[in-house]
Amino acid sequence: MNALNDTAEAFARLHTAPEILRVVNVWDVVSARAVAALPETRALATAGHSIAATFGYEDGENIPLDTMLDMVGRIVAAVDVPVTADLDSGYGDPGETTRRAIGVGVVGANVEDRMKPFAESVAAVEAVIAAGEAEGVPFVLNARTDAVLKGGDRPMDEKVADAIERGRAFLAAGATTVFVPGLLDADVTRRLVDALGERKLSVIGVPGALTADEYEALGVARISYGPQTQRVALTALQDLAMDLYADGVIPSTVRALN
Prior knowledge:
With 258 residues, the chain is of the alpha/beta class. It has helices at 2-14, 29-36, 48-54, 65-78, 94-103, 118-134, 156-172, 186-196, 212-217, 228-245; strands at residues 21-26, 44-46, 83-86, 108-112, 140-144, 177-179, 201-204, 222-224. Strands 1-2-3-4-5-6-7-8 form an eight-stranded parallel beta barrel, surrounded by nine helices.
């Protein structure tokens, strides 16, 4: 486990560096290798939604855990950078799922609360951290709260207050960062950073969001992109197919990345 420990520690340090950690989400070996080949890549994150879609499953733990972890393990084995996995809400047993993820070489994960009862959500974070400790790995948990994303019609102030309450509890339970997905403007981001601490907030890059540089200036630790990266790739594929059906040709700028 020494090598895995070193990788986990290196991955944790990326979250406290002055520069925001930009993590491009991947979903299979070829996408992982294509991104990992770039010198700017410091770590990779799997996108649970995208892996599920690859196998024909809807998002939300509909894909069998064995299938998900098999792909994650293949990704880990194919690259030389730290890999963090999207483990949804822990597949019914966050601690055991984390143990199994560590077994395939993962050094960090997203685990989401899905706005389950507060105590249950905190207990899930504690279980993930305990699993890492039991395996002797300083596991990097990006604890996700859906307070903003799934807050419905509630006023934003109430959503942010929930995210702060849950986020603080997650950090106290051992999480490295708190992931608050949703379209966060500068004001909301600043409030979250002020409440959680510098380099403790993780965000998602979606259409209309701030740039990574703007989030960095506000004190955000990490930005990832979830299923958006696969959607961009599939959009390019579908657009190419339409062009080929219209008697187009393969562009000469295509790179042989596989």
